[in-house]
Specification:
alpha+beta, two-stranded antiparallel ribbon
């Protein structure tokens, strides 16, 4: 552990996923960081992440209705786990994990649920991918991206 740094804690969140008939489909477990112990300027610097404005959603729905457009919706699972961390964030080792010597910690390279900067880091990664894919970011709503080829494609974060 580097001098002057303090590892953040974590907790396990368990959930039972059920089928429509109520029977158990599977068990899920999430490792969630205790981000409330993070210190600004030490563990993170920025947390802002743009969110689509309700007026923009209404506008797109109105346009789609008026022009008889076909709409699709996409949900990305595990989004916060894909963001790359810029800051050095250290977390305590989960129990049951074997370490070669006592006192070691985990240095996080990717975001975890619960980290203060998790949504921002995911958004940064998404924006880079959309821009690389030929989308253009709207100047009036930074959470909307437009791509025009044979058809109009919009992406709202």
């Amino acid at each position: 552990m580097p001098f002057g740094k303090k590892p953040i804690g974590f907790k396990w969140v368990y959930k039972i996923k059920r089928k429509a008939d109520g029977s158990i489909e599977r068990y899920k477990a999430h490792l969630v960081a205790k981000g409330y112990t993070q210190l600004q300027g030490v563990d993170y610097s920025e947390t802002f992440s743009p969110v689509v404005k309700l007026t923009m959603v209404r506008l797109v729905l109105a346009l789609a209705t008026a022009k008889n457009w076909f709409l699709l919706q996409l949900e990305v699972n595990n989004t916060f786990l894909h963001g790359d961390l810029i800051e050095d964030v250290y977390m305590m080792v989960p129990p049951g994990f074997q370490t070669p010597k006592e006192g070691l910690v985990c240095k996080l390279q990717k975001s975890l649920y619960g980290l203060k900067q998790a949504s921002r880091q995911w958004n940064v990664k998404l924006i880079v991918a959309l821009l690389f894919g030929g989308y253009h970011q709207s100047s009036s709503d930074h959470s909307m991206f437009v791509k025009t080829q044979d058809k109009l494609i919009m992406w709202m974060t």
